[in-house]
Amino acid sequence: MTEFLFQLPGKERGFSELQRMGIVLFLLVFCMSAAAIVEIWRLDLAQSLWLVDEPVPVPISIFWQVPQNFLLGAAEVFTFIGQLEFFYDQSPDAMRSLCSAFALFTTSLGNYLMSSFVLTIVTWIPDNLNKGHLDYLFWLLAGLSLLNLVIHVFCSKNFKIEYGDMR
Fold first, then answer.
1. CA distances from 148 to 4, 29, 38, 63, 154 (A)
2. For residues 160 and 18, is the Cβ–Cβ distance under 8 A?
3. More reliable by pLDDT, 32 or 4
4. What pLDDT score was predicted for residue 110?
5. Could you tell me if residue 50 is left (phi over 0), alpha (psi between -120 and 50 degrees) or otherwise beta?
6. Taking a C-beta distance cutoff of 8 angstroms, is the pair 16, 152 a contact?
7. Domain range list for the chain
8. Which of 7, 62, 139, 143 has the smallest set of CB atoms within 10 Å of its CB?
């Protein structure tokens, strides 16, 4: 399936690794925005059913979260593949394993630190989610993903390719 998705431009290797990562970053912005919209809908439903002050679940199917989670999981897989190919292609032979390991390390460290930081500063998630604003967290993550996309595009434009043309 990845061959079909990533060979659309007509090049031998399809989209470059940098383009793949950029597409996935765009999908992450879309995914977090969709999650925020579903949460806004859930909060509106809780308010219309007078469940805001009650610590009970809102009668909405959990399957409304499936598209966002599926898209998020697929995006993470495609990003991981693109990063591994990028580091493998752009690293000297003696450093390929080290660069791949460093990519995994920075991803895990970044996820841990960002999750810890965001959840520490976020005060709008109470024990009763019907009173909270989890949608603000999703909008914050969408904004951070958009910022990440902008930085990625800037860095990709200024990237000097050493081992052939990837764009």
1. 26, 9, 23, 28, 10
2. no
3. 32
4. 83
5. left
6. no
7. 14-157
8. 62
pLDDT, tens digit, for every residue of 22-54?
Answer: 888 898 899 999 999 999 999 999 899 998 888
Q: How far from chain centre, in Å, is Cα 117?
A: 17
What pLDDT was estimated at residue 158?
Answer: 83
CA torsion 7-142-129-71 (nearest 10°) is 0
CB contact burial 89-121 (16+ within 10 A = b; e otherwise): bbbeeeeeeebbeebeeeeeeeeeeeeeeeeee
Could you give phi then psi for residue 92, rounded to 5 degrees? -65, 155
Lowest mean pLDDT among 3-7, 66-70, 103-107: 3-7
